[in-house]
Amino acid sequence: MLSRxxxxxxxxxxxxxxxxxxxxxxxDNSSSSSSGxxxxxxxxxxxxxxxxxxxxxxTTSVKDAAxxxxxxxxxxxxxxxxxxxxxxxxxxxxxxxxxxAFSPVVVTGWDAxxxxxxxxxxxxxxxxxxxxxxxxxxxxxxxGSDFTDEGRRAGKILEKVLEKAGHKGAVKxxxxxxxxxxxxxxxxxKGFKEVMDADHKDDWKIVVSxxxxxxxxxxxxxxxxxxxxxxxxxxxxxxxxxxxIGAIQSIEAAGKKPGKDILIVSIDGVKDGFVAMSEGKIxxxxxxxxxxxxxxxxxVKKVKAGETVERWxxxxxxxxxxxxxxxxxxxxxx
Length: 334
Ligand code: AHR
Hints:
This protein is α/β, with parallel strands linked by helices. It has helices spanning 4-9, 15-26, 53-69, 82-94, 111-119, 147-164, 183-199, 216-229, 241-253, 271-278, 293-304, 322-328, and strands spanning 42-47, 72-77, 99-102, 124-127, 141-144, 171-177, 204-211, 235-238, 263-268, 284-287, 312-314, 319-321. It contains twelve helices and twelve strands. Helix 3 links the parallel strand 1 (42-47) and strand 2. The two termini are 34 Å apart.
């Protein structure tokens, strides 16, 4: 199994991809571009779904960037179901697209379909989320964030939030996890726990943790149940802004003040998250940048041309405390 950490250090050349690319050219059935010379790249893209504001921004970024690059984009929305993504990838293989890109809903269970893509000599580029495979050559690269680091950053920023709030005593944390089995859910939880284990063994405790599936409705429902079972929760760590926003509704319905009675740290940095932060309801946000389209198109072009690309092309991101929210809000792009 290959972890993100392993392939971070393995910024390898993609000899395998070069092989795939060379053969993909042989099978090339893509149409000629209007300018004559070069061929239009046909890219098959399988999106996770439309579960969050982050995802909507990511979809728009991919579609706009493909248009800008002049690619023939075949796009499908898997509605958070792995079987739909597998069917979409099989259909792209059958259509002999030049490159397949996808954002895997979960990390495991991809070997068979990726082997089919490899046999058809179609290179695969992962975007946003990683997979665990038995064979490194089944995909060329990942364009996306370091989710473990985002979890660590959430832990570190919680320290600042607690200090700013003048919090004394036990920190009783509720964790709203992302989709079960998805890379950002696994890795954000892991990074956050690393900070807890290293520096807060005695004073912080995750008292409840459950998936809200990265959705607002999930966050609202699960937070309501958390508050029933653990009315003394004083911190919420939400794996994304949408779940935090849903949770805020349940916190208010329970007669508590989000951002005061329950301190909230979330991940993403979508506009609605910044609005909640500027209203004092979220205390800090760790950014996860969804605008991956331009980097993805650039990578696809290189892969198609047989150029070497890094094994993991990482995204640049920042962290925001509440007092930065109002100033940052007008310039948020998603
Ligand atoms: O994979 C990225 C995550 O997926 C985002 O943080 C979340 O909002 C989305 O649903």
